[in-house]
């Protein structure tokens, strides 16, 4: 497969008033084009920092990020981000929230043909996550899960090659979260973007991913990379597959051996 992202010797130290905080130490990671990669690790181990570095929102203290073999020196082109908290604009309708990134670029304003195409694309995206008929609603009229679906559609409206997701389902109830996983897999299969998915949930990571990266406590290092050889499409039966359970246990065992998870 084609290499999309390469992290080489990434360190990150934050200089704060109370002293230096080393968040990441020697992160080496290759991510293939179209791969679904999850990062799991304890709170504060630097997961969000890795994501921000890949997005170009934060620069590393040492090491380099390469995207399509080009060293990243600013904001990553062709990347979109979804955070745990949706950041929809209260005064824009659902449809206009999805179209926001294009409006900000001025794409829809001057070209009527594009405007119609983009509206259709936004409506199709909303339909594919079960939000047909909600185009004219406003964020306050939606549930948390619906708002997060709109956020995902907004991220996808620009056809990103890379989707960065920072605990996107962390604030949702268990049932909605499960549905969101199916929705995301469907979108990922349709649009074939590369995904970097940050989560605290071992099961979620194994269910969704081609590979799971397990991180240590801060300063975050990569303890292990586990390929997840479960067939796609993933469905309810995936969870009763012995490979699924084996991988979940393997990751739990790593956290236990590190003292990150203690049974007593
Ligand atoms: N801008 C910043 N300035 C100072 N310290 C920071 C900054 N951003 C992150 N840190 C510190 O770096 C470490 C890693 O933070 P990060 O948010 O990447 O962890 P995380 O694994 O995503 O945590 P969580 O799972 O709790 O969201 C933490 O100790 C955090 O306090």
Question: Mean pLDDT, as a whole number?
Answer: 93
Number of helices: 8
Strand content: 25-35%
CATH homologous superfamily (4th level) name of the largest domain: P-loop containing nucleotide triphosphate hydrolases
- Choose one word for the global shape: globular
Oligomer state of the chains in this structure: single chain
Are there runs of 5+ residues with pLDDT below 50, and where?
none
Q: In order across it, which strands form the biggest sheet?
A: 6-7-8-3-9-10
Structural class: alpha/beta
Order of helices and strands: EEEHEEEHHHHEHEHEEH
CATH architecture of the largest domain: 3-Layer(aba) Sandwich
Q: Which fold name is given in CATH as the topology of the largest domain?
A: Rossmann fold
Q: Number of domains in the coordinates?
A: 2
Fraction of helical residues: 25-40%
Main beta-sheet strand count, sense and barrel state: 6 strands, mixed
Which CATH top level class of the largest domain fits?
A: Alpha Beta
Kindly report how far apart the N and C termini lie.
43 Å
Number of strands: 10
Bound small molecules, by name, code or SMILES, are:
adenosine-5'-triphosphate
Calculate Rg over CA atoms: 19 Å
Pfam family, one: ABC_tran
Organism: Saliterribacillus persicus
Keywords: ATP-binding, Nucleotide-binding, Translocase, Transport
GO molecular function: ATP binding; ATP hydrolysis activity
């Amino acid at each position: 497969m084609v290499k999309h992202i390469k992290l080489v010797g990434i360190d990150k130290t934050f200089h704060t008033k109370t002293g230096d905080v080393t968040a990441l130490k020697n992160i080496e990671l290759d991510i293939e084009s179209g791969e679904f990669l999850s990062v799991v690790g304890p709170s504060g181990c630097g997961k969000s920092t890795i994501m921000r570095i890949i997005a170009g929102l934060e620069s590393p203290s040492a090491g380099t990020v390469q995207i399509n073999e080009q060293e990243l020196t600013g904001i990553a082109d062709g990347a979109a981000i979804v955070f745990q908290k949706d950041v929809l604009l209260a005064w824009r309708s659902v449809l206009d929230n999805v179209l926001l990134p294009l409006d900000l670029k001025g794409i829809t304003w001057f070209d009527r043909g594009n405007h119609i195409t983009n509206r259709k694309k936004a409506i199709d995206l909303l339909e594919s996550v079960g939000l047909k008929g909600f185009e004219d609603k406003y964020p306050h009229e939606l549930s948390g899960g619906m708002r997060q679906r709109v956020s995902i559609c907004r991220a996808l409206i620009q056809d990103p090659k890379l989707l960065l997701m920072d605990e996107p389902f962390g604030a949702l109830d268990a049932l909605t979260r499960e549905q969101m996983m199916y929705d995301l897999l469907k979108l990922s299969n349709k649009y074939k973007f590369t995904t970097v998915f940050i989560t605290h949930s071992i099961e979620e990571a194994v269910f969704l991913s081609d590979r799971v990266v397990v991180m240590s406590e801060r300063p975050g290092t990569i303890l292990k990379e586990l390929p997840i050889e479960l067939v796609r499409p993933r469905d309810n039966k995936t969870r009763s597959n012995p490979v699924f359970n084996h991988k979940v246990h393997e990751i739990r065992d790593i956290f236990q051996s590190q003292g990150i998870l203690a049974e007593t």
